[in-house]
Amino acid sequence: MTRFTVTYRITASDARQAFARAQGIAHEQTVEVPPDVVPQGYVRDEIVGRIEELGPEGDSVFRAAISYSPDSAGPDIAQLLNVVFGNSSIQKGIRVIHLDPGEEILRRHPGARFGVEGLQRLAGRPGSGLIAPVLKPQGIGAEELARIAYLCALGGADIVKEDHGLSDQRMAPFRPRVEAVVAALDRAEAETGRRPLYFATLPGPFERIEEAIAFAKAARVDGLLTMPGLFGFGLIARIARDEALAMPVMAHPSFLGSFVLPEDAGIAHGVMFGTIQRLAGSDISVFPNVGGRFGFSEAECRSIAAACLDPHGPGRPILPSPGGGMSVDRASDMRAMYGSDVVYLLGGSLLRSGEAIGEEIARMRRALDA
Amino acid sequence: MTRFTVTYRITASDARQAFARAQGIAHEQTVEVPPDVVPQGYVRDEIVGRIEELGPEGDSVFRAAISYSPDSAGPDIAQLLNVVFGNSSIQKGIRVIHLDPGEEILRRHPGARFGVEGLQRLAGRPGSGLIAPVLKPQGIGAEELARIAYLCALGGADIVKEDHGLSDQRMAPFRPRVEAVVAALDRAEAETGRRPLYFATLPGPFERIEEAIAFAKAARVDGLLTMPGLFGFGLIARIARDEALAMPVMAHPSFLGSFVLPEDAGIAHGVMFGTIQRLAGSDISVFPNVGGRFGFSEAECRSIAAACLDPHGPGRPILPSPGGGMSVDRASDMRAMYGSDVVYLLGGSLLRSGEAIGEEIARMRRALDA
């Protein structure tokens, strides 16, 4: 059974300490007992992580590739992540910089149902960047959100996506909101013959998520937005693996920032917003764009897009979706940077156009197609 | 409707920038649009976060208390956390250092079903520290784990807890494992008349969690261990709010370390492992103990215990549960530090005793009662 391999960047004063720390990780992430009490045989030989590679990366920084048995991860994505970084997340100076799932984990976690090609086909725009305006702000009513959706549809939006802060609050509860938006898109379609995909934000509580998924499907929602930082990556896998449901998943980075921000701990940008999203089954991975109000660098954003699109990555390539400070004026720069396999989120800046939202989206389309 | 208040520590060069950042958070966490497009009236007046207090905390560090409407958070714990720190988690130099839920959020999230008193009563040890050996390591079979449970029960353990790395792997699948452990505890009870509480680790995948909970209840498991970093805090609330189920919840810190480690970002130790756990409904909050292989300081551990036990905190006071490097030899030091409202996790070190695990637990009991 092919083992899966996690590469960690480890802070250590010298090679000896680096080896001790790598050994610590190999035990911590699996048996979680000291080496002297690990049972001989299968547990010691297969379950305990195996240091495959260890070398210096820089001043007091080492790189350790540790392989694990698929037995350790079992069938579930949460337990896979538990092995990758569960307890090690609590230790200083350990950062996950690469994850190679290997054949067996790939078999268990086959990835996105739709991916780049599937999504572009669903949106009727093969090989092209998709424009996804966001329905917001939180606090306005379902009918007002639906009106924005209608204007976006008239303007030629490819995806109409709900803000991740629209949950099931009394101002625009999930069910009436979804019904109002679907009705607005029906009207737009009747008028123009074209219809954007509609991604609704899946609300909690936990015990009503299944009902909410079923409701969304029955109401003709096209895709679901979820926040793995708050609901877990297992919810993404649950949606992606449901053949009868057959709905694409958009993952939002809310509550995941603390993993990527520290340089010497956490999880690298490309692994969190690329590799792990692909394994879980996300079709679209939202992340904060460079130059907006979030502090991601251009290199970090490029690493995310590369991990989403890497033809050798796990499962299907998926669509990176930069958002946060995205605007029509930046369209051609963004196109130069990200190319055509991308979902451009248009958020707050779009609302400045008032009734002219549609024209702004059409202008974005022209800029991308130029 | 009482607003809830989050206090952030913000990095800023001067008071002017601190104010701009605080205003940024107030918008980011709610409407997520620039101030100039926020609708007048209810959305601007109620939904947008309100800076209640802003002042210097140190060199280039400010403290901002921002209040939010319960309307913004809605009924679900995931959306509450989304307002507290969702997108702000992705911005540098913002750390949540306090969370005051206020009356309305407390009404929606009443907290732990059992808490300190309830758990001590269930364990038959009112006012006393509880000893909780851990069943491990991952990789051994269900019968071997059950045998350890049996020895722990004979030794007088108060809680027998499964390692968080025991999921539903083929070496010890969830159902046969649970059945074997329950049978072992039945046998110990028949022999001694005393029975520890048994906390089983709830496995994924997402779509089978309900089945697993029902199975655990039917099999006479006493409590459930879950990892909110991987499964979400909504799962804790789902268990805590289920009156018919009436099972206590133990929360494990796996995959949550990245939130607390950075000094200038993330979420403070006491908020993450105290306040938020209490709001979600955890009865026991596991965290890495000082002096073990994790790097938490004594002050950080004390802040967690204080937040768990604060009589003015949300819901019932809950049991802090330091683990990781805990051993019988440290019992009296630990008792001096944590007092009697605490669950002492005994992990890998216990396995060194082999057949004498029970004697070690009895020795721990004597040290705590001395």
UniProtKB/TrEMBL annotation, chains A, B:
InterPro entries, per database record: RuBisCO, RuBisCO_lsu_C, RuBisCO_lsu_C_sf, RuBisCO_lsu_N_sf
Biological process terms in GO annotation: carbon fixation
Q: Which residues form the Ribulose bisphosphate carboxylase large subunit C-terminal domain?
A: 123-283
* Gene Ontology MF annotations: magnesium ion binding; ribulose-bisphosphate carboxylase activity
What is the name attached to this protein's record? Ribulose-bisphosphate carboxylase-like protein, rubisco-like protein
